[in-house]
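Example (one chain per record):
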Amino acid sequence: MKVPEACGPVSRWVRAALLRDEARDHREDAPIVLADGPVLRNRDAQLALWMIYELCYRGFDDVAAAREWDLGLIELRLELEGRLEGELREATRESRMPALDGESVPVRILTLVEAYPFPKLSAYLRREATAEEMTDFLRERSIQQLKESDPQSFILPRLDGAAKVALAEIQYDEYGGGRPERLHQTLYAATLEAVGLDPTYGAYIDEVSAVSLAGANVMSLFALNRRLRGAAVGHFAAFEASSSVPSRRIAAGLERLGMPEQAALYFHEHVEADSVHEQVAAHDLCGALVRDHPELADDVIFGAASALALDALSAEELLARWVDRPAPFAVEQEAS
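Predicted structure:
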């Protein structure tokens, strides 16, 4: 993958820093000054952060691997992370209240998932979406799903005991249970190919929205900072717990549209897998972590609330894009 095209001053600075002669000292470059204002919906800021994070994953064909530890890029990353984390904490304040008081963390996570008032995007995809809208959805989600579970793998060395075992159990399934062709990333790539989209990792990075980039970036923010390991596992648990029913609906929508059978395999896989994973993630992963480290309880809930809030933003954005109604737009809830 090549370094993406810039879309503003921040991503332009990062792109130039990535492509410069690696022998140059980063301190010779003029620093980038972030403008005031939120970064969550700022595509320039989110693309810049995504490019910096990507150095920790597969990197870029035209960038030296040593750039992962470029001090100038790390300095900018820390500033962007601080702004993004602050916005998320403010955005999830109400859903994180009241403070934990005798209620178990796993129960709170599952209650948040059940009660969260996000638009029913999956119901729309099942019953009303056109083929163009369905492929638009799959394209936007490709930035996350083609690296599915990779951010969470960074969490493993930050855990111990029962929590580590629970995460490893889930990751084994996510990575195909020993079968490369069953990697969930590979299954999603097959979905993209089946509907006529490019299955290449990062193919649509220049097209997806700021919210889609933020959805991927937040997983890296939590997973790559040890102090946020509680938020990382909470995010993962909410993600798993909110996946099974939407996956069933999306599979039905693909079938309604007459898409190739291969297109729905990824979603069929998640109907069964995530119904099991949600219990393991909430009880065995988050529950065990908080039993051993009770001081992380609030961060676990913060991570779960952040996952749900970002899912809601993405759903509102897509439904507003497709339907001639102002966001937020909620499709009437149907029986699961």
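Caption: Confidence is low (pLDDT under 50) at residues 326-336.
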